[in-house]
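User: Here's a chain of 248 residues. Predict its fold as tokens.
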Amino acid sequence: MIPSLLLEALPDPDETVTLNREQTHYVSRVLRLRNGDRLFLFDGRGERRQAVITDMAPRTAVLCCTLRVSATAESPLRITLLQGVPKGEKMDLIVQKVTELGAYAVVPVVTQRAQVQKGGRTARWRRVAEAAAAQCGRSTVPTISDPMTVEAALKYRRVPGIVFWEEEAPPLSRLANLRPSGELCVLVGPEGGLTETEVAQAEESGFRRAGLGPRLLRTETAAIVAVALVQHLYGDLGNSTRERERTG
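Assistant: Prediction complete.
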């Protein structure tokens, strides 16, 4: 698989770009690429190029762009995960995995049982999303917002939503008739789950309640499973690329 590198601005075909010291270290030491090796360049906003390394020096590397590349790893469904902030570094794992699954945005939510730490971690979560997007071949990096209240999160995107709750909730299969028109919000609670009041708030905002089966899942597991399931039902995990092209 050809590796990817995130750049703020992409060169056009036949143009060159010189990497800085940090980028060169990543390409040479982490990716272990050499002169003549190919890699993809992406800007995190949907643009993608293929390039070849023409000059690898200890502190700089020169790449020559060879062609524009179509983005094929982006989901047709824009999933926004509203995630109750969990303890420790669990949010890192959540951001990493839902990025790999094709999430469009992640909103850390300060729920009643959330564990909000002093000192913002949004910048760290954004770096995690950037690395995950490069690893899985995406052209877009999910938007990672600053933490917000439940009320603000429910107004963040006025699109259909599902609130996953471990108490009284029907299985997700009961919502198979839900037909999101390209966008969908998913609300998952932190350790201890969402309160009845918070679930009621979500339902008043148009969210539909659903469960994730008979077993009590950790919050990081619940977030990953929830995004994977909605991608399967409404996104691009239910069909192969070839099948989507044939049916589209």
